[in-house]
Amino acid sequence: MNNVTKLLVLGAALASAPAAAQKVSSISLGVAVAQTSNVSLFGQEQVAGAKVAEKLINAAGGVNGTPIKLVYQDAGGDENGAINAFQSLINKSRVLGIVGPTLSQQAFAADPVAERAKVPVLGISNTAKGIPQIGTYVARVSAPIAVIAPAAVKQALKLNPKIKKVAVMYAQNDAFSVSETETFQSTLKAQGLNIVTVQKSLTTDTDFTTQVTAVINSGAELVVVSALAADGGNIVKQLRQFGYKGLIVGGNGFNTANVFPVCQKDCDGVLVAQAYSPSQKSAVNQKFVSEYRKLYKKDPPQFAAQAYAGIQVFVDALKVIDKKKKLSTWDLAALRTELNKQVLAGKYSTPLGELRFDKDGEVNQKEFFVARIKMKDAKNGSFVFDK
Ligand code: 1QQ
């Protein structure tokens, strides 16, 4: 080997060295949620919840005395937005773990990026079937729709035991909506109800005349809608405008106050199952609720509470690791792997109640709720929790 070749070989070795032995410089966690597009109707509430988490966690000493830093990267409303946000958080910001992305549809595309880079991901709003199974580094604090959705159907039957004919509507281009309608349809059948029509739409649709007309003509006494916030809100509005008078069950896409300005007065009465209630009694939740009210002048919604819980799980796991070996002494890659292991091993007292994970990273959560939308005027309303 001549001297020039030797230098080239050495140069190549040095260039690849930093990635392998990158030290941990700060406790950065990534937040990859939708801050733009229609999906930001959910993402705004996730950012609000994450901000409260950062504030309260750092006020309580962060990770054993070291503050955490949240790095926000807009995941937009589609797959590419989520992939780009993940890549930036992993390679540029060098975060320890990521919460997000907002939609299951995005998670199926972006989570494999984190899996390949061995960076732990916690879904905070991904409820479709199959999310934790994407990979070893993927878990979620958002309970799967399969365990939440049936509660809303049962509540509808309690309010009107005479219901027999049900219309089902869903957004066929969205992974969550497709997964949720499967759960809804099997729940309806298990309850002995008759599905009289199934109507498909797209999350980008704004005119649902065809679907709504078919629903009205079917004579349905209950309509069950799986869609996102903007399309879902418009479906409800058009159902009422066309004269539908029966009960409506909305899925997780209705779980935000941001649907209120879409369906306005017509949102009134829509039943929505929830993985969170502000009345949950734990000390951590009451602290979260009072800080959220102070900052935003309203009760925290489910998506904010789930964002809080995701960040808290990472922080609680990091505290355990740090006690065994100071975080600042770890290599980044090794710590990411250890964090993933510790997340799955722990038990967490969060605003969602007590959480733990199975070996796939599926969340085990105990309490679920059903709320009903109650509108005060055209834009403002609230979720009223049925007992
Ligand atoms: C998912 C959902 C959406 C409604 C989250 C905003 O549950 O995509 O899984």
TrEMBL record:
Keywords: Amino-acid transport, Signal, Transport. GO terms for biological process: amino acid transport. Transmembrane segments: none annotated. It comes from the Bacteria. Residues 1-21 form the signal peptide. Residues 27-374 form the Leucine-binding protein domain. The keyword Membrane does not apply. Belongs to the leucine-binding protein family. PANTHER family: LEUCINE-SPECIFIC-BINDING PROTEIN, PERIPLASMIC BINDING PROTEIN OF ABC TRANSPORTER FOR NATURAL AMINO ACIDS. This is Branched-chain amino acid ABC transporter substrate-binding protein. It comes from Deinococcus wulumuqiensis.
